[in-house]
Amino acid sequence: MRRVGRMPDAFWVLGLFAAALALYLPTLAPSLLWGGGDFATFQTMAYLLEIQLPGGIFGHPLWVVLAHPFTWLPVRDVAWRANLASAVFASGALVLVFFAARRLTRSTPASLLATAALAVSHTFWTYAVMAKVYSLNALLLIACIYLLLLWGEKGRGGYLWGFAFLYGLSLLNHLVMATAAAGFLAYVGIIAWRRRGEPGLRRELPLAALAWVAGVAPYLFLLTRTGTTGSALGTVLGFLRGLGYVATRPSALLLGLGVGLALLLYQFPLTFIPGFLGLRRLGRQAAPEAWMLGLAALGDVLFLLAAADPRAGGEYWWNLHYYLQMYVVFALWIAVGFADLWPRLTGRQCRIAAVILLTIALPILLYALAPAVARPFVSNLPGFRPLPGRDNLTYVLSPWKHRETGAREFGERILSALPSDSILFADYSIWAVIRYLQVVEGARPDVTLVQLSGDQVSLVLQYRDRPHLFLADVYRYYDLDGIGRYFEIQPSGPVYQLVEKTP
């Protein structure tokens, strides 16, 4: 195994960060993005500094606060700037993956290969190029891991206190961070036991507990102040209920494990080998690092398995992005595996070149070919809605999003087609895009935008005295039978006009 390179840390920080941005900036979503409406909503929230409460689908205040300054940049549109925030968070996460891997292996080449493998992995790349909270989750997770590794090696309380505060604060970004708690507690417990005779430890641990309380305090304050504690508790109970469902139904367990393994192999087609080798090596050592990484990954896997419960809501496939945290851990296992293999690879330059090429190029080639290979067999993916300007196979199977212009084009086409003082009824996906154009860019303030939810018929009837009523779409989300009892639904350009039926 090679020793740590002599390059100063600043070189690696700047070099890796720049290399990551060189990958993500050209493939960044250019503006608004289809995706259930979430991306447009997050872009709008970042612009408005719109803080929603923890527990809901948009209860991610930390992301909103950290992404908001990006919306001030004098480049492109606000939507692109919010997407840029994800690229920056992801690039920062990769820098820390490298340093954490190097701390584990003392091998610069192995750490670089592992970092590159994570950088081009499908899920990590996908959420590095569009506005959502998961790249920040990856940054927070690897920062916590790295701080614990520094504390375990150097024994300085500041690292432990920094970890504790950051981990508590991370819950303001996403509650899924709680799945790593068992691994972190195991590591702290093992290191504390090994150092039990040191007098300074009696001060470090209580102060760490206080630091965690300080970090989690904003999250707990928002929960209790707004009465949303039940929502967080419901998430925990739903997780436990889902585990019980999977444990008693082998078909659900096989579905969860099979899909998870297939997705792992899709984005780590070669590097899964050193990944499993690294897991095995650390496991045999039974080191504190093995417990930390193993339990953190297991927590994330169990969370995804619980989502196989149909009562969790939505299609199971829609939850697979939660594996991103496990992939961060898997990258560290890849580093350990490559460090073990490196002496056998250094004999010939061609071997090293082949490993580098396969680590980086093979996944990219798979992502490019997968839509074309799949198209003769499937026309769409389960539960994915056809939307203008979006090829669902390419959208899902390829991580780059730089050609996704359909959402903005469709939204602008709708607004330009509407008469003055129109009422537009839209489902959430389209509503979020139109709302961004109106709120952020000031487009067509004369149009009243109404999100259709709940009793759609009663909602539409509230506006029946207005002259220009339109539906944004006629997809399954619309109660066409109910609305059709009162209105003729007539195509009108990109939308559908509602013409009241005469008695």
Short summary:
62% of the residues lie in helices and 5% in strands. It contains 21 helices and five strands.
Overview of the molecule:
- The chain folds into two domains: 9-373, no CATH class; 406-500.
- The chain contains 21 helices and five strands.
- The protein has helices spanning 9-24, 38-48, 61-67, 78-105, 108-119, 122-126, 134-154, 157-170, 181-194, 201-226, 229-247, 250-267, 272-285, 288-306, 324-345, 349-374, 392-397, 406-417, 428-439, 456-461, 480-484; strands at residues 423-426, 448-451, 469-471, 487-492, 495-500.
- Strands 2-1-3-5-4 form a five-stranded mixed beta sheet.
- Helix 8 (157-170) runs parallel beside helix 10, helix 12 crosses helix 14 and helix 13 (272-285) crosses helix 14.
- The radius of gyration is 25 Å and the shape is globular.
Number of strands: 5
**Shape by Cα distribution:** globular
Strand order of the largest sheet: 2-1-3-5-4
Oligomer: single chain
What is the first-to-last residue Cα distance? 84 Å
Order of helices and strands: HHHHHHHHHHHHHHHHHHEHEHEHEE
Largest sheet: 5 strands, mixed
Helix content: 55-70%
Radius of gyration: 25 Å
Continuous helix count: 21
* Secondary-structure-derived class: mainly alpha
Q: In percent terms, what proportion of residues is strand?
A: under 5%
Give the mean pLDDT.
89
What is the number of independent domains? Answer: 2
Low-confidence stretches: 1-5
